[in-house]
Design goal:
This protein is an alpha/beta fold. The protein has a seven-stranded mixed beta sheet with strand order 7-6-5-2-1-8-20. Strand 22 and strand 23 form a beta hairpin. Helix 1 packs across helix 10 and helix 6 packs parallel to helix 7.
Length: about 400
């Protein structure tokens, strides 16, 4: 009788978990272990690039890769986890509630933005959270030139000065001038609650972001709190009104709600605490990875961030360990000591840092070249070739 590893989600963590699990099962010649990915679409949506143009192209099909590696794909949306019965109920393509049993479960359902933090944000703000919402934003921006010229038309407000907020804010000045005309005077304003740009980052990195923003004309409103988003723009907590036809929401990232169905410790973002093998304590059959896992990256107190950089490696380790638990072999301790950041800064270029101290190594065109290499090549799935896919799915080889 076959044993099943069920992976919920086909994002970076879920895809790599499937390949890594299939690799280890193949190494032990265990055709009785079935790897199943359950997700709404058989494609990897390249979410880190959703601030760019032509969002509809930022997807990569996964069926050829899964077929080459012996991974089964089931289309549907997971709705309920029965941990005691080791079963997941999901809504299939016919809108029917269907059970899928498992011997090992890997939760890789990712994250989403909370749009209920401020009055009116859910109704009036755009976001880059999912492919569909990013497409709506792109369509809206592309049609701004058809609207009558007003200050509100020419003003884009970005709510939040985190990585996503910075990348979309610095991308927009050039794009807006193309759409509105070179004689136009577009404004891009970042609303940030903190009193400094990038308060959690190194001073060196903050200075680069500040320099790029100044050159591009991106305005920062620091120490500002949004009280309301409405059809005319935003209202700040001090009563100031900033008119804008385009408000972009980038704050409040939260782990997928399925984590709440497991009676285990979670952090403020809803991520499940996992042990060094990415297993949920108290549940021998359940693992968590990617944006739903709070995992230690090293012995210095650093924790994986909700980024594709960490999701890729978390996926490789969790797939290996889920399969190892069925094969009776020793699991691998997840470690991801090396940490880098590569932040796109639009027409100014980019910035690349190394280490948790975020020491700046490259800026402007040099960093931009590296950024493009990462986002257009390195983070994409491997070729639909069994040998290549399994080589790249090895968590230890990838770790070097």
């Amino acid at each position: 009788m076959k044993q099943k590893i069920l992976i919920l989600g086909a994002g970076f963590a879920g895809m790599w978990a499937a390949l890594s699990a299939a690799r280890l099962a193949a190494m032990h010649e265990r055709s009785d272990i079935e790897i199943v990915v359950l997700a709404p679409q058989p494609e990897l949506r390249v979410r880190p690039r959703f601030y760019e143009e032509k969002v509809e192209t930022l997807v990569s099909p996964l069926l050829p890769l899964f077929e080459a590696t012996g991974v089964k794909f089931v289309q549907g949306e997971a709705q309920r986890i029965d941990a005691e019965g080791q079963c997941v109920w999901y809504r299939n393509a016919k809108n029917e509630s269907t059970p899928e049993h498992y011997d090992r479960l890997v939760l890789a359902t990712g994250s989403h933005l909370r749009r209920d933090l401020v009055k009116g944000a859910a109704k009036h703000a755009f976001d880059l959270d999912q492919l569909e919402s990013a497409l709506r934003l792109e369509q809206h921006i592309s049609q701004l030139g058809e609207q009558p010229e007003t200050g509100a038309r020419n003003t884009v407000i970005v709510c939040g000065g985190g990585f996503t907020g910075i990348e979309v804010a610095t991308e927009l000045p050039h794009r807006l001038r193309q759409i509105l005309g070179e004689g136009s005077t577009p404004r891009v304003i970042v609303i940030e609650r903190g009193n400094v740009i990038g308060g959690r980052w190194s001073e060196e990195l903050r200075e680069v972001i500040r320099e790029a923003s100044d050159e591009l004309g991106v305005e920062w409103r620091l120490g500002a709190e949004i009280a309301e988003v409405n059809g005319q723009g935003i209202v700040l907590a001090d009563g100031e009104v900033i008119e804008s036809n385009t408000v972009i929401w980038t704050v409040g990232v939260q782990a997928n709600e399925l984590t709440q169905q497991i009676s285990a410790e979670r952090d403020a973002q809803g991520r499940l605490h996992v042990n060094e093998f990415l297993q949920v304590p108290g549940y021998d059959a359940i693992f968590a990875t990617g944006d739903v896992a709070r995992a230690a990256t090293d012995d210095k107190g650093n924790v994986a961030l909700m980024t594709c950089q960490h999701a890729i490696m978390l996926g490789r380790f969790v797939g290996h360990n889920a399969a190892a638990s069925l094969l009776g072999v020793e699991p691998l301790t997840y470690r991801q000591v090396n940490y880098v950041t590569c932040l796109d800064l639009g027409g100014w270029g980019a910035v690349y840092t190394e280490g948790w101290e975020q020491e700046v190594k490259l800026t402007r065109a040099e960093a931009k070249k590296l950024k493009l290499s990462i986002t257009s090549e390195l983070i994409y799935p491997p070729k639909a070739d069994r040998k290549i896919a399994f080589e790249t799915a090895d968590p230890l080889a990838a770790f070097v």
